Amino acid sequence: xxxxxxxxxxxxxxxxxxxxxxxxxxxxxxxxxxxxxxxxxxxxxxxxxxxxxxxxxxxxxxxxxxxxxxxxxxxxxxxxxxxxxxxxxxxxxxxxxxxxxxxxxxxxxxxxxxxxxxxxxxxxxxxxxxxxxxxxxxxxxxxxxxxxxxxxxxxxxxxxxxxxxxxxxxxxxxxxxxxxxxxxxxxxxxxxxxxxxxxxxxxxxxxxxxxxxxxxxxxxxxxxx
Amino acid sequence: xxxxxxxxxxxxxxxxxxxxxxxxxxxxxxxxxxxxxxxxxxxxxxxxxxxxxxxxxxxxxxxxxxxxxxxxxxxxxxxxxxxxxxxxxxxxxxxxxxxxxxxxxxxxxxxxxxxxxxxxxxxxxxxxxxxxxxxxxxxxxxxxxxxxxxxxxxxxxxxxxxxxxxxxxxxxxxxxxxxxxxxxxxxxxxxxxxxxxxxxxxxxxxxxxxxxxxxxxxxxxxxxxxxxxxxxxxxxxxxxxxxxxxxxxxxxxxxxxxxxxxxxxxxxxxxxxxxxxxxxxxxxxxxxxxxxxxxxxxxxxxxxxxxxxxxxxxxxxxxxxxxxxxxxxxxxxxxxxxxxxxxxxxxxxxxxxxxxxxxxxxxxxxxxxxxxxxxxxxxxxxxxxxxxxxxxxxxxxxxxxxxxxxxxxxxxxxxxxxx
Lengths: 225, 419
Known about the structure:
The complex is a heterodimer.
Chain A: E1 2-13, E2 16-28, E3 33-37, H1 44-51, E4 59-64, E5 67-68, H2 74-84, E6 85-88, H3 100-110, H4 115-128, H5 144-157, E7 162-166, H6 174-189, E8 193-197, H7 201-204, E9 209-214, E10 217-223
Chain B: H1 2-21, H2 25-65, E1 68-72, H3 82-91, E2 95-110, E3 122-131, H4 133-140, E4 146-149, E5 159-163, E6 189-194, E7 197-207, H5 212-215, E8 217-221, H6 222-229, E9 238-243, H7 249-258, E10 265-269, H8 276-314, H9 316-324, H10 329-365, E11 368-369, E12 374-375, H11 381-407, H12 411-416
Parallel strand pairs in B: 3-8, 5-7
Antiparallel strand pairs in B: 1-9, 1-10, 2-3, 2-6, 2-9, 4-7, 5-8, 6-7, 11-12
């Protein structure tokens, strides 16, 4: 489903060149739940951004769902992200003026899905994350945990092929974090492909595979039983 | 292509409406207030400039020419066969009122009884206008322009009305080529001189009008004026005609031309008779008004540009998120276009209400008292709607450019707040 070959990413600031990813090879199969771990600055989030087509690598190849990212125009990448990907960000990334339901329904509306059907699906997604009673609330009227659950609902509402999550529990208390991870586990059981960045061992253990990154390179791949 | 555009517009509207709904009341109010002021600047500045002259033209029409004016041909002192022309005009069913005038250039002199030989004579040049006071009043409302004293009666033998421009007490101007009478008021005896003929008359009233021909004229009952200027044949110099409501002056003009009146007189509608300088000033003022309006338009565009730019800049992270989750850049740009349109339409709508339900009636009830006209606000709906369209278009452009600038930035940089 995702095949990455010799992925390199460097940042340039004037004459200063900072290598962040130094030639990563990686394959993600359908239905896998993979966690990327590493200390701060190791390049784990940068890796996720390249993989999820949110950023352009300096060199290397990313083949996602049979498409070579290099051949995709920016508009095609946006469309691809809309149709095939779901995103959960560390800081929830909800639109403040939209209600929980509107935040969740937006990607479906952008896909020209019939409004009635889109709203019904969005409600189902919110029900799945236990927020049926918060449909009309705007993000500022929700707790951090609830906001992250809305974010998850938004990411899964349009049934993406891959769910990308960047430190989804970093800003949450234990109870909320556990709730999010439980949702991910349920989704995985239903066959959802998930790739998640985290630095918390306890949640990493829930995944099928743990990839450890350090200094821009994969240093270990561990399979959980 | 069209369905993609429609989808982006739908999503853009979805986002714009929610952003407007959740924006600060005071911020939205301030932006709309700026748009209202811009709209007023667009419509009212040029409207008053044009209205200034329109007021003058309206005064010229109502207070002097009437709807049709028949006057002497060039180098002629009177209209030949005037009595028959007057009779002809009176037979036309479209005609409401008619007033024949007997005009002649005269010299007025005051204080001639007390003047010493070495003193400069107290004189002024003027146009003597002989009128039937009742008919003239019905046609032009002349009696309503009496500043002091009283209006003429048909039986007034040696009484005149003097325009206030001819009296120094009202117009203390002393310039070459223009002289006004000193120490003349209601009841003062003055002398009217035509060539070697002089007649002593008493000032019965003083006229004040925004029409120079009235304010610089000396009005006398027609029978006395005819005697004074030696016009025994009854030939008038001007025949002013008012038509019934809704009658097109061109129709009556054509009828008079068809009857051959144009062979002995100039037949003009009130529009034809407008002095050329007024027509020129209208064009100049319209250009000036458009220039000033253009500045207003640029200022409004810059205001919207800044507002949308700051808005988009502060929301850069959310724009990045939208792009990140797959929302098309065009849909995001459209959301800002819709917001700009909202401000422009709301500002224009309030502006339209202010113009048509407040300012226009206000200026009609209380015209601006300019020296040469009663200034009104001219705001034809068609032209106003064109200005609304201009405002909306410039606002859309001003809203689109900054939105596009922000939307084009790297998605991840926007999400992470990186430069």
